[in-house]
Amino acid sequence: MATQDKRSDTSDFPEIVNTDNLQSNMKPIYYSRTFLSIIGGVIAGIWGFTGFTGFVFYFVVMLAASFGLAAKAKFSADSYFDSWNRVLLDGILGGLMSFVLFWTFAYDIVHIF
Amino acid sequence: MADDLVLDTAIRNWVLVPLSVVMVLIGVLRYFVSKLIRSSQNPDTKAIKEGQAVIRARNLRSAAHLIPSKSFRSRRIYFTNEENGLLYVPKEEAQKAQAQMFQDPNMAMDMMKKNLSMIIPQTLTFAWVNFFFSGFVAAKIPFPLTPRFRSMLQNGIDLSTVDVSYVSSRSWYFLNLFGLRGFFSLILGEENATDDA
């Protein structure tokens, strides 16, 4: 994840955000969450999770992804993003639909047919 | 009794997989078609000048605390001066410009093309699914839903005792429609026109 530092050097003025860098930092978050939700869906289907367990598994995967992203951002959201919410929460609901699709697909292929 | 329906492998081979493959291919096709038919817009000099002036003003605004206030004020007057300020537009001209934007044929054509290119494949695919793949159980969703969803998910199946988890192919179509958006953003890169938001 090639992130770029985007904060200005003075510390007690309101910070300038370089929007190009911010957007290019958002992309790895989005791509990695989408990819992990697809893979997580296939895994959940193959293992045969049903109902509530599957959703719990999805949120566990998303938590692991958030932890990995935070570790990559060296645990200081301020130097790469404008708020913690973007690192931790962005893209979770969008990935849910992909997760459900691939979960249904894998579950049906392995267990029903 | 309602649990553990045994579904034919042929359903998997000939319904689920082809439907997903078709939707992926249609999405890719739509992406390339929209790229091809996008009319090459000749940039309008005046519009570009105005856009660059707006960007300059925005940079000034965001960095305002870093320059002495006198230079900030003088720059601001340069932009908003009533006689020859870059950003100052008299009221009549502003309304005229907006009306012209709506009548501009290029922009209207582009918007219409984008809308059409999204609606037509969806409608056609939905009609195709309804025609060929209705009247049987297509898949089982791994999580249970309340019985109120039965009419929405099982519309081709006329038995009322089948578990709500067993859905028809129309709901498989909708599941694909929403779930493949993330997949498209992975394989097609950033600006893909598959967002139906």
Automatic annotation (TrEMBL), chain A:
The keyword Membrane applies. It is found in: Endoplasmic reticulum membrane. The chain crosses the membrane at residues 30-49, 55-75, 87-107. Keywords: Endoplasmic reticulum, Membrane, Transmembrane, Transmembrane helix. GO terms for cellular component: EMC complex. It is a multi-pass membrane protein. Belongs to the EMC6 family. This is ER membrane protein complex subunit 6. It comes from Rhynchospora pubera.
TrEMBL record, chain B:
The keyword Secreted does not apply. The keyword Transferase does not apply. GO terms for cellular component: EMC complex. The chain crosses the membrane at residues 14-33, 119-143. It comes from the Eukaryota. Keywords: Membrane, Transmembrane, Transmembrane helix. It is found in: Membrane. One of its GO terms (biological process) is protein folding in endoplasmic reticulum. It is a multi-pass membrane protein. Its main location: membrane. Belongs to the EMC3 family. This is ER membrane protein complex subunit 3. It comes from Rhynchospora pubera.
